[in-house]
What we know:
The complex is a heterodimer of chains A (321) and B (475). Chain A is of the alpha/beta class and 321 residues long. Chain A has 11 helices and 11 strands. Chain A has helices spanning 2-32, 38-44, 57-60, 65-72, 86-99, 134-143, 147-152, 163-173, 210-225, 246-260, 287-304; strands at residues 51-54, 76-78, 105-109, 182-183, 186-187, 200-202, 229-234, 241-243, 264-266, 279-281, 284-285. In chain A, helix 4 runs parallel beside helix 11. The N and C termini of chain A lie far apart (64 Å). In chain A, 40% of the residues are buried. By secondary structure, chain B is an all-alpha fold. Chain B has helices at residues 6-21, 27-40, 47-66, 70-108, 125-140, 150-158, 171-174, 186-219, 226-258, 276-282, 285-302, 308-326, 330-348, 353-356, 360-382, 386-398, 405-408, 411-433, 435-440, 445-462. In chain B, helix 4 runs antiparallel to helix 5 (125-140), helix 8 (186-219) runs antiparallel to helix 9 (226-258) and helix 8 (186-219) runs parallel beside helix 20 (445-462). Classes of the chains: A alpha/beta (321), B mainly alpha (475). The interface between A and B is medium-sized, with 23 and 21 residues.
Amino acid sequence: MRLIKYILLVCTISAGLLSALVVFYRKGQSQFFKVEQPVKEMLSGTENFDVLFLGSSRMSCHVNPFFVDSITQLNSYNAGHSGFNIIEMNLMLQCYLERHIPPKVVVADFAINAFDTHHPIYSPVDYFEYMYDRNVANVMLKYHERAHLWKYLPFMQLCEADEMQKVQAVMGLLGKKERLGGYRGYTYNEGVLMPPFGTYNDESNFTITPDALKILDHLIATCSKNKTKLIFTYSPEFYLVHHKSEARIVASLQAICNANNIPFLNYRQSELCRQNALFADPLHLNTKGAEVYSKVLACDINKYVKDVNSVHSAYYTTNDY
Amino acid sequence: MLFNSLQFLAFFPVITALYFLTPHRFRWITLLLGSCYFYMAYVPQYVLILFFLILVDYIAGLTISASKGRKRKVVLLISIACNIGILCFFKYFTYIIANSGFVLHILSDRNFSLPHQNILLPIGLSFHTFQAISYTIEVYRKKQKAEKHLGIYALYIMFYPQLLAGPIESPQNLLPQFTQRKSFNSNRIISGLKIMMFGFIKKVVIADRMGFIVNQVYQNPANAGSMKLLLTVLIFFPFQIYCDFSGYSSIALGAARVMGFELTDNFKTPYFSVTTIEFWSRWHISLNNWFRNYVYKPLAMRLRWMGRLSILIAVFVTFTLSGIWHGVGWTFILFGIMQAVVISIELYFKIKTSELSKSLLHKTAGIAATCTFIALSLVFFRSVNLHQSMEVFSALFVHTNYRTSDIVGNKYTLIAYSIAISFVILTMVFEKYSARAVLYRNHTLQKEVSISLVMVLILLSFGVFNSLSFIYFQF
């Protein structure tokens, strides 16, 4: 009897306390970030966008919608996020389409490891509160063995948050906000890459896995079905970066684009790759670099979407930015 | 299956419930089948190796017990040879072949590469072969009666809490427990559960957290920065390996205690040791007892005609073999030799724990010196090869690059390191001063629930759940 009481009391009280901690965690996280996280915008935002940018941190801090929209006269959102690969890029698109009218344009940026599905979900904790969404649930249950626990024992979700996320939640609850902000999903990136420069060699052996290829096909098919113009990009990197897998990945991407009549904008040899003042680190542009690149990208996007009209009339002023 | 897995979380209550529901006469069957299932969760075919060794040693035990004179020794040697042979084959075969090719290349000046395949080491092999050898030796010495019941003997080797990474139990301690009637005792079960929870905290909250930092630094020690490397060498890796292994041992102890079995406590706050001799009497106690009883003492006795030199030789042989037991590679051998050197110095200069402990200053200095030496020797333990060890020492002492900004300049590093160090301090203080009272003694129900709630919340709030098996599984 004593043992049963002990087990029941420990289980129920810890479940209750953990559930409370999870609520505080989520509240703290949402209060900490100045920029609305793309997962939240795609799954619970109400605004429709003409242009969706998908990708990893190389999208989230490379493309500033303010400058893109000023050239294209469209309404865009940067749904890029650190660590996103093809799985999460496609997930963002599918989640967006559940609740919004299809965008006119989707620009998908592929980092060198975008097709590596060995680490499918970068930050599972970001999806906890959205497990009711069938797209989210399907992906999480497919790739994360503990997603079954989260679905039926939601108080277990706190186990998945890492140190930094917990610290951010605590800081959010204490009223502190992240130092850098952003705009419509774009995140400012400080810092300047200074000499002396070494060569930055990446010896990783990335490939496009069969699973990744299937997901990429799904993304292409989705855009085709919704008459959305799809554009692939490889955004700028500092010219001294060398990836062992780059030639292979780029060639594969180019072949897929040729087969599906998708424009592939490869900025790897662009002149701005040689300007260290535009980079915060060898792989990421800083705020100034993002401004330059966003304008370049916007002009290139314009060539493919001349006839697209915005769903909105004039929607922003300089005060928004 | 790993202790820190969902599979084990399901397995443990089921096997425990079945154990208590089974009549006493048949409980050995329940435990044996459960242990087989537990072991076969890895590579199922390897259970056949285990069965083979169990059969060999069971028959050897009975034969030694029934025989007289020289035959007893011959059977003992055959049994030991079988166990050591299988251990050497799985553990050292690939290494021996690779190094033979290298030696042939040196001798003949031709490029030799002997064909070989990497052989997967059956998990727990190092532990249960030693446990089996201790059984046959104790039977030979007539300190243990040969076990007539094959099932009970098989359970002695395969008892799941200690099957994969010890403690290495003496037959006198464990065998009689399988025939004793174990009652369902709530207080003992709650105590066992608390010990298991503490083990999980050490593994999942502390060891795995340290593991991220250690792995990151050891990926490129030359460029990690000397300050980060120093903290990793002196604090993070020593506590990673301690919490990893003692955490596993605590889980094993707790799981056994729930069912009424008492296993050997493998660790007694070793980082509070004043001398290296004391350290090795507090770290991995069951293995060191094994080496002391079956290598050191017999060797020292046999060589006693050499006087004090016999002790030194016995120490060197014991610790070199201990190093080799831990793994293949010169790093492990060097690790063992380093321990032997320091212990020999302590013995020669008669540096005794009891003498040093008389003065607080001497005691503190002794603890600091012992911990520093152990931490530095663990560099060989952690490094994948000698080259990496040299890289680490070079970055620490030769091509140094000490910058506090490496730690305090990056807020993520500062937070991660601060949390890790805080957990280390709290755990060490708890283990030294409170663990016995909190985990082993009975309290009121409210107090038991409170203690357990704190542990569960720490575990689930701060645990690292995306990794890493136990370090000692590789042995």
